[in-house]
Write a sequence for this structure.
């Protein structure tokens, strides 16, 4: 009788059976106390606990046979399992009470020490105490460990609640929990898989206490990323994107990705619980700032203002006057007849007169007439008549004056005709043919902002994007390796048991593809920058050749073949770009950039040729073409393919793929053979054909293209059709 009491004397009718039942109940009660606090009563648990369990089971069976039913509704197995759990709770309470403050509460420091000690206690429990219960509770080790974890979770939540910022206490606590987690995976036997998984899941639920710690660290890193990126761009604006020695790229991309490679491993080294979402959130921050950097790559800063580098802004924009032909026709009378000039002057004076001053304007006109009359009275003929000269002398004088007047009128007409020719961009039929004016004078002025961009600077930006793409691939590999290491640490090694191995390979613990956004924006940025560089070479740097002079005034006067030769301006620009892109062999894939750029330049040249042949008018740059010029265009395209393919004497291709170049020039060849070679009447017939589409990307011949060809035909029928269409348009 552990309680030290004694039973009252039995009544006569109860007899000896009553003492038997009472004694068995007392034995069971004493054994419950022992088994429910095994750590306090058993010195040699491996040998002593099995004996106590055996006696408990025997007493339980005797009580059942003596009394008919046991004192409790629980079976002997359930009774022993309950004692096991109570023993675990008692031991855990003793561990926590040892760390309690005088007021009975446990602070964070005490909680950390308790969890640290608990790791050792769990191991002792699984190896020495729990096996003593195994005769009645086969999965005693798993049940005991799970009970420890449930008690630990409740105690940690009560003491800590949550961490708001990254601190040493948070790191120490999670390291203690991680150690406990590793012990569970290592000690729990295979037949306790269900309890082990539940214990690991319960511990993983404590990671929510550290969510704000990880988020706080990520917020700090985001602020750091923004500061570093801003400093890098400021430095690039100062240094004009100068390359680092022996690297081929500028400092900004090196600093940025060095920071990424430095901070991402720090996330895994925090010593805090990391979920899959935490890692993906960190990667999303990297994606965000890679996107911002690509945006800066495609941005030009001019006079402290950002400008997006748009290829469309490099193409000359000509101002077309509406109804120019109609306005010119309406002014013919005013320019070449006296009545028309007088009427124009009167309308001009009347329109300028403010309201209420019509009489004053009439007075001005009257004064002008008086001056004219006065000048007429002072003419030489009037003076001759007043002096009494003979009529024959007066007529001779009048003849001389008439000859001078006619000569002056002829000079005025010639001067006006020259102005008309310059305005209309046409030719003057009478008189000797003057050499055509340089069409460069009619090009729009180049934007000063765009002139600041050098090809070398743009190539450095392009190499930065390529180098960044390589660094993204390296960073992706590092993250996957670090995550695998984190899973190994979390779920143990090969001897961690089946439960940990199964939890490790769950789909929710896989990262999948990461940094996809970074790879996409870097690839898209390269494509955009390549298009910008190619457009700049053809339509901005060399616009004098490929926009103004090409095929002006006729294809035979300035063919394309003269521009696509070695040593010409285009060849010099491409040589400069090639030298800059291939300046550093350490960057793999730069040759792919060069081929892509050359291919895009070829497309830009084809685009310029099509613009000159059938595109929108270029202001005063008026080209004249006929069916006989189609064959020259075909020869120019052959020269263009030869230049970009670069086939040597042995037939080896040293440039772009011949089939790809032929595919880019194929449309123009068909255009020259099937449309430009037709006479004007046939083109007009095709335009009015109902089956001809208005504008089609699939069909080579449409009305838009036909009008472009007719605008360059000198025949009157073509000019009339274009004029009528222009009237309808405006």
């Amino acid at each position: 009788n552990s309680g030290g009491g004694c039973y009252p004397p039995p009544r006569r009718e109860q007899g000896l059976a009553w003492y038997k039942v009472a004694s068995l109940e007392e034995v069971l009660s004493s054994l419950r106390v022992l088994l429910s606090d095994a750590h306090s009563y058993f010195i040699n648990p491996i040998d002593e606990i099995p004996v106590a369990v055996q006696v408990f089971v025997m007493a339980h069976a005797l009580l059942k046979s003596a009394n008919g039913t046991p004192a409790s509704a629980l079976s002997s197995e359930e009774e022993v399992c309950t004692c096991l759990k109570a023993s675990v709770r008692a031991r855990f309470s003793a561990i926590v009470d040892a760390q309690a403050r005088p007021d009975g509460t446990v602070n964070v420091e005490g909680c950390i020490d308790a969890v640290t000690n608990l790791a050792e206690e769990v191991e002792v429990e699984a190896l020495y105490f729990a096996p003593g219960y195994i005769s009645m509770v086969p999965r005693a080790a798993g049940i005991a460990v799970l009970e420890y974890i449930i008690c630990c979770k409740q105690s940690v939540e009560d003491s800590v609640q949550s961490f708001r910022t990254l601190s040493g206490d948070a790191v120490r606590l999670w390291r203690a929990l991680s150690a406990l987690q590793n012990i569970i995976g290592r000690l729990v036997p295979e037949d306790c898989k269900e309890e082990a998984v539940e214990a690991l899941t319960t511990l993983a639920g404590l990671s929510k206490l550290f969510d704000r710690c990880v988020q706080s660290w990520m917020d700090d890193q985001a602020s750091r990323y923004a500061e570093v990126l801003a400093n890098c761009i400021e430095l690039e604006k100062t240094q004009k994107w100068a390359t680092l020695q022996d690297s081929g790229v500028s400092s900004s991309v090196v600093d940025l990705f060095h920071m990424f490679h430095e901070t991402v491993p720090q996330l895994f080294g925090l010593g805090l619980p990391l979920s899959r979402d935490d890692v993906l959130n960190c990667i999303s921050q990297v994606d965000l700032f890679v996107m911002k950097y690509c945006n800066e790559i495609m941005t030009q800063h001019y006079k402290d203002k950002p400008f997006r580098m748009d290829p469309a802004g490099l193409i000359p924009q000509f101002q077309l006057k509406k109804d120019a032909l109609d306005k010119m026709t309406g002014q013919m009378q005013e320019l070449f007849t006296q009545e028309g000039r007088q009427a124009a002057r009167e309308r001009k004076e009347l329109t300028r007169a403010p309201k209420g001053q019509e009489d004053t304007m009439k007075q001005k006109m009257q004064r002008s007439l008086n001056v004219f009359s006065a000048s007429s009275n002072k003419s030489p003929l009037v003076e001759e008549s007043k002096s009494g000269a003979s009529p024959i002398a007066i007529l001779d004088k009048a003849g001389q004056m008439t000859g001078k007047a006619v000569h002056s009128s002829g000079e005025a007409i010639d001067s006006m005709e020259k102005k008309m020719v310059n305005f209309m961009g046409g030719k003057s039929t009478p008189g000797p043919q003057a050499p055509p004016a340089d069409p460069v004078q009619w090009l729009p002025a180049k934007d000063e902002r765009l002139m600041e961009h050098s090809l070398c600077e743009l190539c450095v930006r392009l190499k930065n994007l390529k180098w960044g793409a390589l660094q993204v691939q390296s960073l992706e590999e590092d993250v996957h390796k670090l995550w695998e290491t984190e899973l190994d640490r979390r779920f143990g090694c090969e001897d961690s048991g089946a439960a940990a191995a199964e939890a490790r390979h769950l789909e929710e613990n896989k990262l999948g593809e990461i940094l996809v956004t970074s790879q996409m924006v870097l690839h898209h940025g390269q494509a955009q920058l390549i298009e910008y560089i190619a457009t700049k070479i053809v339509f901005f740097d060399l616009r004098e050749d490929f926009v103004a002079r090409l095929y002006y005034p006729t294809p035979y006067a300035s063919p394309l073949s003269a521009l696509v030769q070695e040593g010409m301006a285009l060849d010099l620009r491409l040589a400069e770009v090639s030298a800059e892109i291939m300046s550093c062999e350490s960057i793999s894939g730069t040759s792919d950039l060069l081929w892509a750029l050359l291919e895009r330049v070829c497309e830009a040249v084809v685009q310029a040729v099509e613009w000159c042949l059938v595109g929108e008018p270029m202001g005063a740059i008026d080209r004249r073409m006929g069916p006989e010029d189609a064959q020259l265009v075909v020869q120019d395209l052959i020269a263009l393919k030869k230049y970009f393919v670069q086939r040597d004497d042995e037939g080896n291709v040293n440039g772009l793929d011949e089939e790809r170049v032929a595919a880019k020039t194929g449309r123009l060849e068909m255009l020259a053979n099937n449309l430009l070679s037709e006479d004007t009447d046939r083109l007009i017939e095709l335009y009015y054909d109902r089956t001809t589409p208005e504008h089609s990307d699939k069909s080579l011949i449409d009305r838009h293209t036909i009008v472009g060809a007719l605008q360059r035909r000198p025949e009157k029928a073509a000019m009339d059709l274009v004029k009528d269409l222009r009237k309808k348009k405006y």
Q: What stands out?
A: The two ends are 116 Å apart (CA to CA). The chain has 29 helices and two strands.
